[in-house]
Amino acid sequence: MIFETHAHYDDEKFDEDRVELLSHLLRENNIGNIVNVGATFRGCKDSIKLAEEYDNVYAAIGIHPEEIDEINEDVINWLRENSSNPKVVAIGEIGLDYYWVKESEQRAKQRLWFDRQMDLALEVNLPVIIHSRDAAEDTLNTIIRYNTQGLKGIVHCYSYSKEIAMEYVKMGWYIGVGGVVTFKNGRKLVETVEAIPIENIVLETDCPYMAPVPHRGERNSSIYLSHVAEKIAELKGLTVKEVEDITYENALRVYTKSKRK
User: Fold this and answer.
1) Alpha-carbon gap, residue 97 to 81, rounded angstroms
2) Per residue in 116-156, pLDDT tens?
3) 51 burial level (CB within 10 Å; 0-12, 13-18, 19+)
4) Residues pairing with 202 in the sheet
């Protein structure tokens, strides 16, 4: 079975077939556990709702850096209270996204709430799911800081160099690999997958976005993770089953066994 570590089945693009997918279609297509990841406050609530409705669905709760205008201490308190739900397995997705944000004040605001949610993850003893775009140095420096306190997690939708990826691997973090590894312009991710140990890779879709080849441009779903596993197997010289089994265990480790004692 494949462990889907990052999905957004609360998205409206799944309104027509969400029940069919989560109740039986995904499992029939070799998908085991699924982590539905919050990005907005509403998305966090919807993720918990889905996790409570379906046995194999779990939730991550956190506010995406592009959504920080909706975050305040009341939201932090809500995240704290709901982190004790047994179906909540991570704080995320949180992080930095400088792609559209050029003003130093807005970037500083992102860093403030990134730190605040990292602090929360330490407090409630949960791993984190990191979103990072055009913010390689600030993201790495933040994670180095919190790693010394025992915080672990996944760098989701990894887009930086293999050298930076190795820094995360040295700290015991995990790299989220999805459809981009199958793209013609996904060379950096291909080089990263080739360079890092399979024991530090987890599979993800970010669905409904980032569908792999041969479904690029379509609505993505966890069913298409088979194409990601096949590409990783090709790059690592492994069988597809080995990739599925190892990445499944990796995901279990980060979401359950890696919690600090």
Assistant:
1) 26
2) 999 999 999 999 999 999 999 999 999 999 999 999 999 99
3) buried
4) 176
Distances (CA, A) of 55 to 22, 46, 58, 82, 244: 9, 15, 8, 18, 20
CA of 1: how far to CAs of 110, 134, 225, 242, in Å? 36, 33, 11, 11
d(CA 61, CA 71): 12
Q: How far is residue 143's CA from residue 131's CA, in Å, rounded to a whole number? A: 12
Q: How many CB atoms lie within 10 A of CB 254?
A: 25
The span from the CA of 11 to the CA of 147, in Å, is 32
Whole-number Å distance between alpha carbons of 245 and 193? 17
Kindly state the tokens that stand for 174: 């995990």
Characterize the bridge pairing of strands 31-37 and 57-61.
parallel
pLDDT tens for each residue of 46-95: 999 999 999 999 999 999 999 999 999 999 999 999 999 999 999 999 99
**Distance (Å, whole) CA 260 – CA 142:** 19
- The 3 state secondary structure assigned to the chain is CEEEEEECCCCHHHCCCHHHHHHHHHHHCCEEEEEEECCCHHHHHHHHHHHHHCCCEEEEECCCHHHHHHCCHHHHHHHHHHCCCCCEEEEEEEEEECCCCCCHHHHHHHHHHHHHHHHHHHHHCCCEEEEEECCHHHHHHHHHHHHCCCCCEEECCCCCCHHHHHHHHHCCCEEEECHHHHCCCCHHHHHHHHHCCHHHEEECCCECCCCCCCCCCCCCCHHHHHHHHHHHHHHHCCCHHHHHHHHHHHHHHHHHHCCCC
Q: Are 222 and 4 in contact (CB under 8 A)?
A: yes
